[in-house]
Amino acid sequence: MLTDPQLLYYLEKIGYFPKGHTNRKKNIAITEIRKSPSTQVMNLLPRLQLTTIPYESISLHWRPVLQSADESPRGAPVLLSPPMGITPADVYSKLVAQSRGGYCFEMNCLLGYAFQSLGFLVDRVTAKMVCDIKAIAKRAASLVGEGANGFTSEELVQMEAMPADVPGWETHQMLLVALPSDPTHQYLVDIGLAKYSIRAPVLLTKLSSEVHLTRSPGVMGTQLRVWHDPAKPEANRWNVSIQWLGCPVYFPLYTFQAQAADPAQIEMIHYYMSLSPRSCDPPEMFATMYVDGLGQVSLQGMELTIVDIDRWGSRQVERTVLESEEEQEACFKKYFGIEGYKLGAIHASEGIIIFSDHCP
């Protein structure tokens, strides 16, 4: 969990407290939440973190240096790997104190620690991604405006089918959150999928005789659907599907079992995701966050994209190609508050990644 000073600063950073609140009033508010955690607070914290702490992958590219090239026996800088841990102290230091962002493990871990510090019951769970986002987005774009009239109900169900037995690791991590007064009812919370995050917690509800569908708004006009298949009750498996703005079809996103993951497994997956080139998608440095007055701002490599959804449900897209690394650094600072990421670091392509005592 976060310490009391860390929790106070976290809540200040995400804008939980009204302007003008003294520290005494803030501490009283925290005490009141701990006495009776509520679904109102559970709904508010994810939305606030999504608009104040960016999803970003910069630390996968710019790594802290452990040894200089002169000290390294192989003549290249030795880099810390993984670049960041996921303990409460680690994620607080990076995402709050240093005003950085993070990927799913870091974003959801920070939120989970905050929930626990406020008295909520939290399980960290892992999920298997069963989609190819680029392929799905391309397919969805071709269906926008066509309507669902061309598909039979069986075809629509097949498009959303979850291949739970697809090979591979469960490389995504989310949260199951519950109120102490009602521990049997858990809510799925996931703000760690960048532009595909869930903005509001989803109550996991099982029905005995039919597939239960719960819809929740995502970012950038997407809708997400969480469902449990009663035909496989022994697996306690849940599926999350995504629908793009204007597209009639839901596509499979990820599948998970509603049970706490082994902490050692979470550490191992984080270690893999921090090292493997396959985990870095997109391959360029990337950051995204909703910015009030602008929309969803994303910086991928040298391309800046701003997407806004107007009141009629239309997308307004603005793209800018940056011309220099200086412009890129200025955009990271302007839109995401990220700066200084090159200090004491070097690009991963130029160094040697080693196992270190810092790693699990």
UniProtKB/TrEMBL annotation:
An annotated Gene Ontology molecular function: acetyltransferase activity
Annotated Pfam families: Acetyltransf_2 (PF00797)
Gene3D superfamilies named in the record: 3.30.2140.20
Superkingdom of origin: Eukaryota
Cited InterPro entries: Arylamine_N-AcTrfase, Arylamine_NAT_domain_sf, Papain-like_cys_pep_sf
Membership in a protein family: Belongs to the arylamine N-acetyltransferase family.
The name this protein goes by in its record: Arylamine N-acetyltransferase
